[in-house]
Structure formats: C-alpha cells, structure tokens
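Rotation project, supervised by the postdoc (A.L.). Task for the rotation student: set up a whole-complex structure prediction and record inputs and outputs verbatim in this book. Inputs entered:
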Amino acid sequence: MAAAILGLVGLLVSLYLWLWKVGALGALACGDGGCETVQLSPYAYVWGIPVALLGIVGYLAILVVALAGLQPRFAAARWPTDLLLVLAAGGVAFSAWLTYLEAAVIHAWCRWCIGSAGIIVAIFGAVLAGRLRWPAVSR
Amino acid sequence: MAGQMKLFYGALAAIAVVGAGLIFLARARGAERAAPQAVTAAAEAAFEGHVMGSDSAPVTVVEYADFECPACAQFAVLTAPDIKQRLIATGQVRWVFRDFPLEGHQNSLPAHHAGQCAGEQGRFFEMHDQLYFNHGRWVLERRPERRFRDFAAAIGLDLRRYDDCMSSGRYLPRLERAKQDAAAAGIGSTPTFDIGNQRVTGALLYDDFKRYVDRAAAGAAAQ
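Outputs recorded:
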C-alpha cells in the first residue's frame, strides 16, 4: 500500500516536471531557480528522452505493479514484491546518479528532483521491509 | 480487510485528485501570467527564425548557430558587424537566425532560451550580441542565468517579463523543434549558412562571405 501511495505521489511530481518541460506550465514552483538550471541542463535528457518522462514511466510501473500485488488473486504471490523491488532498486540507482550530477556537475539543486529521490528511496525501503517479512520458504 | 482496502483506495483517489488539481492550478496560473506573451500555435508554426533586414532584399541568408559554439562567437564578433552594416542595413541581405543549441553544451539551452525571452520583447539580436561579445563571461559559468539576467538588464528588457519568461521555460518546445529541423536540414556543424542556395560552414571572414552573397545575388538576378 505504501509503495502504491508513494508511487502515485512520485508520478504526480514527474508529471509536473514533464509538463513544465513541454511548455504546458507556467513557472516552476521552486524558489531559487535551481530547478530551471537542472531542467535546462543537458542532463535533463537521457538518450534524448526527458528524465521527467522516464520518471512518469517508472512511477507508473511501480503504481501498477503495487496495485496488482494488492489484488486478492495475487495475495500469495511473491512476484509483485520482487518486481517492485527490482523497479525501486533501479529507480534508486538512477536517482543517485542524477543527485550526483546535481551536486558535482550541474552545481544546482532541483527541489522536486530531490523530493523524487526521497520518494523512490522510501518506496525501496517499504518494499524491502515487506520482502524481508516473507518467510524463507521457496514457493 | 475490506474496510482497510476501501480506506486505501479512498486515500489514493484523494491524492490523485489533489495532485491533479494542484497541477491544473499551476497550469492556469502560468497561462494567466503568460497571457500577454502567449506563444500561439499559429505563431509558432509560422516562426522561421529571428529575422533582420528588409523582406525585399535580393539575398536571404539563414544562419544556424549555437550560442556556446566558439566559432559562432568568432563569426559574431569579427564578421557579423560588417555584414550588418554593409549588407543588411543597405538592403542587400535579409538575415534569418535559426537556433541550433548543440547537445553536450552545458549552457547552450538556457542561453538560447534567454535569446527567445529577449526576442519576446523585440530584442533578440541585442541579446545575441551580448551573448557572443561576452562569451567568456558565461560559457564556463555554473549558474549562467544570473549573467543572462545582467545582459537582459543591459539591453533594457522589462526584467519582470524576462524573469517570468525564463522561469516558465515556454520556448523549450520551440528550441527542441529548431534542433530537430536543423538536423533534418542536414546541418552538422555550427555556424552553417545557407546563402541563397549555397551552403557554407565555419567562421567566414567578411570578404569571403561577400563573395557568396554576390554569387547568390547574381543567381537571383539571372532568374
């Protein structure tokens, strides 16, 4: 449940940043201009795809898998938790790289990006805690 | 358990509604603030670049340039003032500047965005000159936006409108499309000039540039 709620919040944050990126929003609510610096840097794209759009896809995947895992027919299945763990671990690694770029290369902080990094770490923590509660029996 | 799930789905729906509402509000506020300078789809479709000179000039030169590119700066500082004075001001050349912010240039995109925001107030080429003539002052800056704002003040822009434009990022789609259009036109380096139907690259000196213009003018006159 925590993963689904956090995934939805992350999805909304990514959607907000992506809408700004495509020019559909006014000013970013950011404060010191760090968000614009980060969003206008070349690192706001990976293989030509806006990072915010990758965030939308990633968080949407987490939300869908988390909701699927809550369905009664998957109550005993381990795969949703394992898949969530993989998705969240990928997200944590990606966020860590982006945070490193903000700190060491761009020298500017985007509060929304930091917020998103916090969300993905929280998702990873919640899923890992859930995974560790599984009894050590192979199914 | 069923009650707990109901509560969960209720919370999820509430977050979705509140989040979507906040984004909608941000969008409405942005549209309201940007309304006087809204970039309409029709204006965007008709946008061919930043134009200088007479529409009836016999030769049109299209320049594809990147504000961070050193060769473009060299051309802007050494050659462009002569071209402006001797070819554009005299009605021989119509100049079209097309943005081509190159990948990998850290400060290029914000510089081009600052150019669009100056263009919104009718001062694109003034910002263009500030960016090129002060190249060394911002290319390696970690936060070039502050420097661009100084340039905006120096050329007399309304800073409130400029700040609003910069923070809105409303010209990012235009710049993205300009990059794609330049790539589709086969532009591989900057600066590149289409002088009539001749394509030349590099920071040409005035005399060489003039020869291409004369050739294009002769071709136009022969038609």
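Student's summary: The radius of gyration of chain B is 22 Å.
Supervisor addendum: Confidence is low (pLDDT under 50) at residues 34-38 of chain B.
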